[in-house]
Design goal:
By secondary structure, this protein is of the alpha+beta class. It has helices at residues 27-42, 74-91, 116-126, 138-145, 184-199, 203-211, 217-225, 231-242, and strands at residues 9-19, 46-49, 62-68, 96-109, 112-114, 134-136, 152-156, 165-169.
Length: 248
């Protein structure tokens, strides 16, 4: 039976894969930990693709696709992804995770998203040279550079095929809270509790990841609220989160 396709959508697609050297112990558990974190952090945006058939378990790659439909979330998703991958690398040092950002067309279907953008992203990812762990396509660079508040810098990726680009985030300017009595640790603990009431135990991971981008408290609340699908849940979170600043 043919999977019916919906109307074409413009989207940012991030293709990832995870592997390790031959005979690496604990590879599957490391891959599973990555899959769990990606699914918990990005929710419905994350499609999980298993290892290719016929590969030995110690050599298998597990692949992922992040599909981002909202244009204003592409940059923040990349920042959260990079922070999450840094955590994964610290906990699972032998795991090699690569990713590439592309912008193109996808089609919604009953089984997720399909389309040339996903195929192109994974094809380009497979062509990265040894030692190259992140890149962007010219299509993504063109999209990103026209977005308000773009903080990405692109440059040719040395030795890469397909005119791939390296990218980095400009150093975010840290903005201190205006109140001299502001307690950052207490605020983050408060946010985690508020978010956990809406999305469950992955709240801690999401708060830890988001706060590294040096947001003001208001920006941090707004970014975390986007992770809540239910409108009433978002309203409750916003109200509870901002109650931290109300006089006791």
């Amino acid at each position: 039976m043919v999977d019916p396709l919906g109307a074409a959508l413009s989207a940012t697609v991030i293709a990832l894969d995870a592997s390790a050297g031959f005979g690496t112990p604990g590879l599957r558990s490391s891959q599973q930990a990555l899959a769990k974190l990606l699914a918990g952090t990005f929710g419905a945006q994350c499609q999980l693709h298993g290892a290719a058939s016929g590969q030995a378990a110690s050599q298998a790659k597990i692949a992922f696709t992040l599909v981002i439909l909202q244009e204003d979330q592409a940059h923040s998703t990349l920042r959260r992804l990079q922070n999450l991958l840094a955590d994964i690398h610290q906990a699972h040092t032998a795991l090699i995770v690569r990713h590439i950002a592309h912008h193109g067309i996808v089609f919604p279907s009953n089984s997720g998203y399909l389309g040339s953008a996903i195929r192109i992203a994974h094809t380009r990812l497979a062509r990265l040279l040894p030692g190259q762990t992140q890149a962007a396509t010219p299509d993504f660079a063109q999209f990103a550079q026209h977005q308000p508040g773009n903080d990405l810098n692109f440059a040719p990726l040395h030795g890469a095929k397909d005119e791939l680009l390296s990218y980095r985030h400009e150093q975010a300017q840290q903005v201190a809270a205006t109140s001299p009595k502001f307690d950052q640790a207490a605020f983050l603990q408060h946010l985690t509790a508020c978010l956990a009431r809406q999305i469950g135990p992955f709240a801690q991971v999401m708060v830890d990841t988001a706060q590294r981008n040096n947001h003001t408290p208001e920006q941090l609340i707004s970014e975390l609220a986007r992770e809540i699908d239910d409108a009433e849940g978002r309203r409750q979170f916003n109200e509870e989160a901002r109650s931290f600043f109300r006089p006791a």
